[in-house]
Structure formats: structure tokens, C-alpha cells
Amino acid sequence: MGQNSVRGEGTRKSVPRARELGWDDDLYGAGEATGAGGEAPEEAEAPSGPTRAERRRGGGKGGGKGPGGRAAARQRAKKTGKRKVLRWTAITLALLILGTAGAGYLYYEHLNGNIRGGSRAGGDSGVKKAAPNALGDTPLNILLIGSDSRNDEKNIALGGGRDDKGRKPLADVQMLLHVSADRKNASVVSIPRDTVVHIPECKGEDGKPPYPATDTRPINESLQRGGPGCTLTTWESLTGVYIDHWIMVDFAGVVAMADEVGGVPVCVKSGVDDHPTKAQPGGSHLKLPEGTHEVKGVQALQWLRTRHAFGSDQNRAKAQHMYMNGMVAKLQKQNAWTDTGRLMGLAETATDALQVSDEIKSVKGLFDLSMQLKNVKLDRLTTANIPTAEYPPDRNWNILVKSSADKMFSMLRNDIAFDKNGTPADAKPKPSKKPKATAEAPGSLAVTVVNGTGSDAEPAAEGRARTITEILQGKGFTQAVSSKEGGNRPDTVVTYPKAAGDQGKANAQSVAKVLGLPDSAVRADPKAEGLTLVVGADWREGTVYKKPAAEAGDIPDGAQVIRGDEKDCMEIFDPYKWDGKS
Fold first, then answer.
1. Is 319 helix (H, G, I), strand (E, B) or coil?
2. Residues 6+ away with beta carbon under 8 Å from 476
3. What is the pLDDT of residues 191-244, one digit of tens each?
4. DSSP letters of 59-108?
5. Is the four-CA dihedral 79, 80, 86, 90 of positive or negative sign?
6. From residue 454, how far is each of 187, 394, 485 by CA, in Å?
7. What is d(CA 506, CA 496) in angstroms, rounded to the nearest whole number?
8. Of 464 and 78, which is predicted with more confidence?
9. Dmax over Cα atoms in the chain, in whole Å?
10. Is the pLDDT of residue 60 over 50?
11. Residues 506, 437: contact at Cβ < 8 Å?
């Protein structure tokens, strides 16, 4: 490579430096090639001629000072020159290899040093990772967060609001990326930033007291109550989906990534000028004529922040999905996962632009993560919004439409594709492996039943734990008891102590089976003290569990679904339409 790629290190000297150390033309002389860089094969290829002893004696073929001797001298000079060229090639290659290896290591460490990290979770949601399918695979879930931080000059310049410098940032954008266990399809769901949800208790920073749980604040404030780990815990509590990692980007990061890919394609049905008005001060200042455009730099940030011209927070989320689909399409077109040059550029920009959860806080971690996404085709990438309604106490805020949210969260938990392009096998969760042990007699198993049917939208169904306990007792689980404790859990699960191993799993599956619960409802819990059945919000009534009906692509109305390979254009709210002239 010949140069040190680490920024600020300048050019790595090679041949000139070798001269300073005495690596010049006379280093090996004009004699035999020996030692490092010696060309033994050249000696073997040399034409038969007088040996040194013969030359000293003046004998041998071509000896003497006649024409034959001059020819031999020319031959020897030609050979010596060839050997010198090859020696220099070998030396140069050695230097290049050493230089590249050294620069590569330094560059790798440089990239690692760029990456900022933080704890994966900010609290305890009680949600466990999904059970693996028959092939041992599990879905991958990543929470994508857009921060409105103004805590440095670059972000103040891009986002405005100098008075907000030092304020804890809000989670302006939140998307959950779900990649199926077979890595063939991906679904992205968004919740608008001003949606009021249950935010659980989260750890305080630097040893400070924890932030108490709340049910009356919008989800974007979760970032202020313990950082991105708290936002992740909030999503887990809300959806019942275990989230493997979070990735966060600020204003400057958005601009840098858009520039790195060379712009992201977006489309508007009419010209747009998102300017301040008397009714709506502020605005993103996005200004685009009708049609498709590749936005980058500040314009990319304006697109992602536009709300007034698009009409609502829901529509803004739709525009963000368009942007995301456009970026994925651009990366695939650039062969970003296989082109070394593109990977280097993306690595430099991404490691500087992104903050990630600690378990992927390395170049290797991010590279391995990206490899999980490379096989998802655009027609299997689906984005959607969770439908919302007006929050009664404050019309500027939203609440989730419970029926729609429950259905979409259930699809995520059960790894059901948001699109209809897969095979039937893609749309159904695969059974987990059968345990190696045999379940013990039902009457010997102590089962605690907990009522977890409450949710943000409604209280727990009264007497639910007692009802299910009586059902279990009637089926032979005579030691089943109902707990007076309750809680909110979206899905029904049977947990067992992780230390109980295969025997614990077999016992838990026997409980699940008599109630009609799927194998995926059985979870190992390191904190569990015994068999526990938590009756979730998906089973508020009835004596036999009925799995929520959901098929691939069966998305509720109002979710604003966009498929990755579909071209769509944003509608523009009338006050912000632009004729492209003024």
C-alpha cells in the first residue's frame, strides 16, 4: 500500500528510508544473490558458462578479452541487472507487506477507537431471547435511534437550538429492525416520538438513583431517563420482543453517512418547501422540486426531520422509511458488502458516526452484524408504522392503537414476515428442539400462575391467575397455585430455572402443552426459582390458549407499509407545496 491510512499519520516512507539505512544498490553487490531477497532460481537459470575459477585461469567458454569475452561480460551484466531488478522487487514487496500489515493493524485500532458504546439495556424488562428454531437459529432485533443531541458545535450548527446545548438528548427517531431467523426477510417498525407509553424503571447514570417508571410521558423521553439502554428496555417491555443491540446516530452522523453513500434517493409528489408559518413556527427548511432526488448532507437531515410539510409524525416516519429503503438499495447497488474499497469508506464513516451497544462495540462486531443483513433482498424488506390515535389529555401527543400494536408485536415475537413474498415456511415459527429429558408427573410439579394481562391501555383481567390455576389443577397439576402478584406482559410464557436444564425444560413444556401454548412460549430464566406461568395480555379470556391469528403480510390498516423494492413518493401538505420557481 505504501501509505499509512491512519489519519494524521502522514505518508509511510519506504524506499527512501531504506537508503538512509544503507539499503542501496551495493547492499548485496553484483555477486551471487544470497540471503533475504536472494534469487536462487535465477542462478539455476543462468546459461552454462565459465565458473569463477575458470575465469581466473582465463579458460572456459567465452574466456579472454576477445569478442567472446565481451559477449560473456555483456551477458553477465544483463544477468546482474535482472537480478538487481528482482532483488528490488522482492525488497519493495516485503516493505509493502510489512507496511500494509502495520498500517492495517493501526487502521483497525483507529476504527475501534472511533466507536462509542453503552450498556445494551437500561433496566429489566423480563423479556428473554426467543427460543431457537429446529436449525438452532433465532431472529435478530436491532433498535435504531436518532438522537436530537445538541451537545457539540457541529450538531448545533445542523439542528439549531443553541439554548439546548447541555440538555439531555431525546430519541427523535425510533425504529425496530427485525431480521428473520433464516435471514431471508426483514421488517422495520416505527413508533412516533410523541407517543405516550409505559417507560419502565431505568438505571441512573454514574451511580445516581434509578429513574422511576412512568405511564404519562412520550417514548422519546426514554433516552433522557438512562440513555439508549432505557429506550431499548422500553421497547422490550412494550413489544415482548428481545432486542439484541441498539445503534444510535445524531444529526452530524446522518449527514456523514448520507455523504458517504453519495446521496439517498427520495421522492415527492409535488414540490416542497418546509418553511415557518404563523400556525407552525420552525420547520426543517427542506426544499425540493417535484420528483425523485438524491439527498445528502444537510438536505438528507432536512428530509428526515420534516414533519409539517408531510402532515404528521406518522407521515414523517413514513418518509424516514423511504430514506432507509433508499439507502439499503444504494448500498446493495454499490456492492457495499463485498467491495473492499466501499467497506473501508463505510467503516471509517460509520465508526465515527454511530454509537452502539457494548457487545458490538468493535469493527468485528459491526462487520459481523452487517453480514447478517446482506442476504435480505429489497422485496423482502418491509417498513411500517404502529398506528396511533390522539392522546386524550394532550392532543399534541399520541397513544398506540392497541389492537394494531398487539397484532404487529405478535408477528415480531413469532417471527412472522411482514411481506407475502416468502414461502409458507417463512410465515410460521419453527418448532424448538424436543428436550432430552422426560417430564415428571404433573402432580409432582409446583407451578406458580401470575396474572400479567395488564397493558398500557387497560388493567389486568380480574381473577385471571385463579382461573388458569383451576384449569391446571383439573389437568393433574395439583400443586399449581395462583400468585397475588401481577404485572404487564404482552405474551403468555412458561419460565423455568435455567439451572434446571433439560429436565426443567421438559417440565415447562408439559405445562405449555396442556394449555395449548406453543413451544416458543417456554423460556429458561436464570432468575426463576421454579416453574412459573405468566398469563399475558394475549390471553385475557377463555380456557384454552388460542394463538393470535396472523399470516405473513397481514398488517393492520393504517400502518403505512412500504416494501423495499417499491417506489413511493411523499404527499405534501398544501401550505408547503412549492411550484419549483419562487
1. helix
2. 441, 442, 443, 514
3. 999 999 999 999 987 778 899 999 999 999 999 999 999 999 999 999 989 999
4. -STT-SSSHHHHHHHHHHHHHHHHHHHHHHHHHHHHHHHHHHHHHHHHHH
5. positive
6. 27, 23, 12
7. 10
8. 464
9. 118
10. no
11. yes
